[in-house]
Design goal:
Blueprint: E1 2-5, E2 14-17, E3 27-37, H1 39-46, E4 63-71, E5 83-87, E6 101-105, E7 109-111, H2 118-123, H3 125-138, E8 146-150, H4 155-166, E9 170-175, H5 180-185, E10 189-192, H6 198-206, E11 213-216, H7 221-229, E12 236-239, H8 249-253, E13 257-260, H9 265-269, H10 273-288, E14 301-302, H11 306-315, E15 322-325
Parallel strand pairs: 8-9, 8-11, 9-10, 11-12, 12-13, 14-15
Antiparallel strand pairs: 1-2, 3-4, 3-6, 3-15, 4-5, 5-7
Length: 330
């Protein structure tokens, strides 16, 4: 089969002929139709993501959508011909989705719902799982909660906004003026982070009490601001970018709590694979109910132009999730 191979960090990936993998127990061979592009993919390629434990040479691509071509021993959840998607490889020496075929743990995958095309399916896993783990598994969001999402128009952010709205929360989201329409279309109250201070929007939207849940998808100074925006007595801050050193005193002074989200952990540890598959089945329910959609950048990329997709992710020109489509030779 053909695959896009990274042989050294910060270098151009090249198309190479590599052996067709075979599924082992609990695995499926997937004929790959599409590979989602995430900021983490570009960081791995640049050698800037040691926490993902990349091993060269590597076939990148964390998110995948495709059709089951063969099943390994013990697999009963999928059959040959089933369409599947998931966050299934591309780190820690596990083959990713920038290839014609890939072998993936069946527990990490879910059926592609009828309402999704392969491009949409490949764009969804990492960002939705990250949103779900933060809001549901960590913060236990419920109807009536006030939820602030930092970066509401971003990949994880636009999933978190839709999820919180679907679960009955009153949702607010920060962004730039250019993202206002996109954020409001998702059902959130827009906050311009460039013109409103934390004190301003906490006072305006919560009467100074703070938000029940704050989800930081930006990191850095935004996580520090999140600590100041949490509700007094019981507010909860979640971040999927909690890298670095932060002062917890503002959080402590509000009697609030914090959780980190590390969505890569099942792939890195080999534990908890079934949880990821289960979360994607929850996404399927929301999609079928018309409560969740993924925003795609309209540009089309192939294995031969995947470097352009990575460049678009890095230069900030993406207007939605970027996807590489894979055509398998007959």
């Amino acid at each position: 089969m053909q695959a896009l191979v990274l042989t050294s960090f910060a270098a151009r990936m090249t198309i190479e002929n590599v052996p067709l993998p075979q599924p082992g127990p609990g695995q499926v061979l997937v004929r790959i139709a599409a590979s989602g592009v995430n900021p983490l993919d570009t960081k791995i390629a640049a050698g800037a993501a040691p926490h993902a434990r990349p091993s060269l040479p590597a076939i990148l691509g964390i998110d995948v959508a495709g059709t089951v071509a063969a099943v390994g021993d013990g697999v009963t959840t999928f059959h040959v011909g089933a369409t599947v998607y998931g966050m299934a490889g591309g780190i820690a020496g596990i083959q990713g989705s920038l290839a014609e075929y890939g072998v993936f743990d069946a527990a990490l995958l879910a059926p592609v719902p009828p309402a999704l095309g392969m491009r949409e399916a490949a764009a969804l896993p990492l960002v939705f799982i990250t949103a779900w783990e933060g809001l549901v598994d960590r913060a236990h969001v419920k109807a009536g909660d006030s939820v602030l999402v930092h970066g509401g128009a971003g990949g994880v952010g636009h999933m978190a906004v839709q999820l919180a709205v679907a679960l009955g929360a009153k949702v607010y989201a920060t962004g730039s003026a250019a993202s206002r329409d996109a954020i409001e279309a998702l059902g959130a109250h827009f906050i311009d982070y460039r013109t409103s201070t934390v004190d301003d929007y906490v006072a305006e939207h919560t009467g100074g009490a703070g938000f029940d849940i704050v989800y930081d998808t930006v990191g850095g100074a935004t996580l520090d601001a999140s600590f100041q925006a949490a509700r007094l007595y019981g507010g909860h801050v979640v971040s999927c970018l909690g890298w670095g050193t932060f002062a917890l005193s503002p959080l402590t002074a509000r009697a609030a709590t914090y959780s980190g989200v590390f969505t890569l952990l099942p792939l890195l540890s080999g534990q908890g694979h079934a949880r990821h598959g289960a979360i994607l089945r929850e996404a399927n329910k929301l999609i079928e109910a018309g409560k969740l959609q993924v925003r795609l950048d309209p540009r089309r990329f192939t294995l031969r132009t995947a470097h352009d997709a990575h460049a678009a992710q890095m230069d900030g020109s993406a207007r939605g999730k970027l996807v590489v489509e894979v055509e398998v030779r007959d």
